[in-house]
Each structure stands twice: as structure tokens, then as C-alpha cells.
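Can't paste images in this forum, so I'm doing it all in text. The chain is below; anyone willing to post the predicted C-alpha cells underneath?
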Amino acid sequence: MLRALSTAATGMEAQETRLDVTANNIANASTPGYKRMRAEFADLMYQQLRAPGAPSGPDTRSPTGTQVGMGVRIAGTQRTFSEGDLRQTGNPLDVAIEGSGMFAVQLPGDRIAYTRDGSFKLDAEGRLVTTEGYRLASDVTVPPEAQAVSIAADGTVTAVVAGEPAPIELGKLELTGFANPAGLTALGKNLFMETTASGTPFTAAPGEDGLGSLMQGTLELSNVKVVEEMIDLIAGQRAYEVNSRVVKAADEMLQQTAGLG
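Text version of the structure:
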């Protein structure tokens, strides 16, 4: 009975983490560029009461053996980097990536982070920055006299300036890719950081190396499907309830055993 209690407790703890992950997905359903996560489970060690193939009689052997599991644990949280829906905003500084690439962002201390959130702004010096004020590593600066800014699919940024017969080129946005983007670590603020699991980043112009092209005036929404998350939420809640019933049943059996004396 004690084994059933501890095993059910691991199940309840794992389902709590699953609900935490699902709740975070739902909370970020409207976050631009957010990538949903899912909890992954793995069974714990087993108590081997009889090994497979052990003698079960004078001339027979156990075909399967006897093993009793000790419960479950959270093996990891997998982030899904599938593309979210695109929404036209009409804002010339909103840029969506149609592909797997990411924007490189300069953090304090010469650190580089990466984001799928293309809702850019201009700082006091006219540089493209994120909503949190971190400038893009591509370092594009828009002059104050610019009347209109255009961002082409290949990342070329141009602006119409009074007195100039043709638009002037301000720079070019680049994209970064990873062999295993699921291995990136989330920093919050829609930012990710490179890890040994993600692999070394590689940079290319939009439209090259399979990183995708850019779409101006558009934002990539979260890839969270609220209906699917609600279903997962209900499934996690039911699994938690079933594990709690196992605890109750084991407790009642212990009470009956204690009453035998």
C-alpha cells in the first residue's frame, strides 16, 4: 500500500507541472511570436520482483518476469516552433518571418538573444529596437527626416527622404537559425538564448538557407490553439483526480489492514 501512495503522489506532482505548462500556454495565447510548450513524461525505476526468464518451476521459466513501477516524472518540456498565424497590422515597423529564422537582439554585456517577435519600434537615435528597448543586432538606423520606411522580403530596409529622388537604403535585416531550436532556453520578454543543446547559430539573409523571408506590416501571433489547450487542461485535471483517488483507495486499504489487529 505504501508503494501505491508514493506512486500516486508522483502522478499528482507530474500532472501539476503539466497544468502549469498548459496555463502558461493559455496566458500567452496573445503574445506575438510565442511558441507553445508541452510537458513530456517518463516512467521511474522499477522494482524487479522476478527477472524475465527466471525459473518458475523445475522445467519452466517466467516469460515476462514481475516488475512493479515506482511512478512517473517530468522528463522535460518541449517547445514547438511551428509558425503561428499572421495578422496584418498596417504598422510599417511590424515584421513577420515566413520561415524558421529568428531576429538577433543585442543585450547588455554584449550578449546576443533571439526572438520571433517582430513588433519593432524606434529609439531616440532612430535604431530599430524590440518592445523592451533592445536593439537589433542588424543595427538599422532610420533618419529623423525619413517619411516612409519599407522592409523588403529579403530584409533590405529603405526610406523615402525629402529632397532625394529615390529611396535610400538604410541597411539590411538578417535572420539566425539553429539546428535544434527546441534546445534554446527562454529568457522571458519573448527572447531566447543559445545553449549547447540548440547548436551554434548560423546567420543568413532572409530567403537564404531556409530561414524564410520577411513580411512588412504583419505580426506572427502565438502558435497556441486555445481549444487544444483547454482539452489538455481537462485531461490533466482528470488525470490528477484519478491519482488522488488512488491515494484515497490506498489509505482505505491501510485502514482496513490496521483494523485487523
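The chain has two domains: 2-81+224-258, 86-220. Residues 2-81+224-258 form one domain.
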